[in-house]
């Protein structure tokens, strides 16, 4: 049986999982003795590490990358979906990329499968999974100033020389990977390691929704996956979103004038005096000026205007959380709801999806739902997200988990240590 929490549990718990049923998930939970995997009932399912990160395979297999310090040097190992070790060894690092697990030891790279078996030994200076089971690799010295000769390497270790050299390769996005050729220019390689888009750009971004931002002469343009120009390279900056596999919104800024394009690349909104823009959601853009900011959607409709002393955080479903010197409120298509007493607030998220708002009245923390209805009163020294419907809280010396009805699922006094 898993062990029960009996430790000082700090309020900052990290829910690093996809949205789903809370009861079946494990979450990274930080206490004085380290980080453990815990379920929503307060049961510990792993040993303590310095940090734990959840990763998913392309087929939805859950794994955890656990890191621990040894003589002030951080090492990484792999845990299964139940928090149990899959490896009897540590690497300098493990990370997920394009559906593969990459290992690093002594500056060299290798690969594991999702059961923890070694696919490729740690012998490569460049190793980029192509998302189709093979890898772009090199064993050349990356620090010698000479572009590295590239190979296509299969999981059985066999390699085919690609007759190309590169001194930088990113990661595959939508079947293409940006790379810097021996001539210092950027282009895009296919999964077979062939130049799909010739290296001709000073800088380049990853593909999203069939589009990528590229730079020439310090100016930004937009291309499609065939290398055709969608917007010429004459803008100070371009950002493009992707949702559901298709770009839904593009913002191009030239000398302070921002133009918003829809998914068909038709201009739907223009605003002057814009310093920069960002996209909190695939269909929304925030245009930031010196005197405030504008929130608009992919149809060019202005949803919200805020002042320079205000900050906005979108919550989905047409809701936006606004915090400023005059208070905190929720803005939506049906009007605004003031969060009474709040002087600070931020969204609580499960798998990146907002489900509640954490509020602070200057002395204590509480929580409300996305319509502004109270979930937890202003009674806690800290409130953080565990998963939807479960919060980690601290109230005096009492620490633990509390549900949306304000009932303690588990609590413990901070004077007691972590025990097995």
From TrEMBL:
Keyword Signal attributed: yes
Query: InterPro entries annotated for this entry?
Result: WG_beta_rep
Residues making up the signal peptide according to the UniProt record: 1-23
Write down the superkingdom of origin: Bacteria
Keywords per UniProt: Signal
Q: Name one Pfam family in it.
A: WG_beta_rep
Q: What's this protein's name?
A: WG repeat-containing protein
Organism, as annotated: Candidatus Fimadaptatus faecigallinarum
């Amino acid at each position: 049986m898993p062990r029960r929490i009996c430790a000082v549990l700090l309020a900052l718990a990290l829910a690093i999982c996809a949205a789903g049923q809370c009861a079946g998930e494990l979450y990274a939970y930080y206490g004085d003795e380290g980080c453990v995997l815990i379920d929503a009932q307060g049961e510990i399912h792993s040993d303590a590490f310095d940090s734990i990160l959840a990763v998913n395979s392309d087929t939805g297999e859950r794994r955890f990358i656990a890191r621990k310090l040894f003589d002030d040097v951080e090492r990484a190992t792999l845990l299964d979906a139940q928090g149990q070790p899959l490896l009897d060894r540590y690497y300098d690092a493990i990370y997920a990329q394009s559906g593969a697990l990459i290992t690093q030891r002594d500056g060299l790279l290798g690969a594991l499968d999702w059961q923890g078996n070694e696919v490729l030994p740690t012998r490569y200076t460049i190793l980029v999974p192509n998302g189709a089971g093979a890898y772009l690799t090199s064993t050349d010295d990356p620090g010698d100033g000479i572009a590295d000769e590239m190979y296509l390497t299969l999981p059985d270790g066999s390699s085919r020389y690609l007759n190309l050299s590169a001194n930088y390769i990113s990661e595959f996005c939508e079947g293409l990977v940006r790379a810097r050729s021996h001539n210092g220019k950027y282009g895009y390689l296919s999964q077979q390691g062939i130049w799909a888009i010739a290296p001709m750009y000073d800088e380049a971004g990853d593909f999203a929704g069939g589009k990528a931002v590229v730079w020439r002469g310090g100016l930004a343009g937009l291309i499609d996956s065939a290398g055709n120009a969608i917007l010429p390279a004459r803008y100070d900056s371009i950002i493009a979103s992707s949702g559901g596999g298709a770009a839904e919104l593009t913002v191009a800024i030239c000398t302070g004038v921002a133009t918003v394009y829809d998914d068909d690349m038709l201009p739907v909104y223009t605003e002057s005096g814009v310093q920069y823009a960002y996209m909190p959601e695939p269909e929304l853009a925030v245009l930031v000026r010196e005197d405030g900011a504008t929130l608009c959607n992919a149809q060019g409709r202005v949803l919200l205007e805020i002042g320079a002393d205000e900050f906005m955080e979108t919550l989905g479903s047409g809701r936006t959380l606004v915090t400023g010197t005059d208070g905190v409120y929720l803005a939506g298509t049906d009007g605004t709801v003031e969060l009474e007493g709040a002087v600070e607030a931020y969204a609580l998220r499960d798998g990146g999806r907002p489900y509640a708002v954490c509020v602070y009245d200057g002395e204590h923390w509480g929580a409300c739902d996305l319509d502004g209805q109270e979930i937890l009163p202003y009674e806690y020294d800290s409130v953080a997200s565990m998963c939807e419907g479960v919060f980690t809280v601290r109230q005096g010396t009492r620490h633990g988990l509390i549900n949306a009805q304000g009932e303690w699922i588990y609590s413990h006094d901070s004077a007691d240590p972590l025990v097995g």
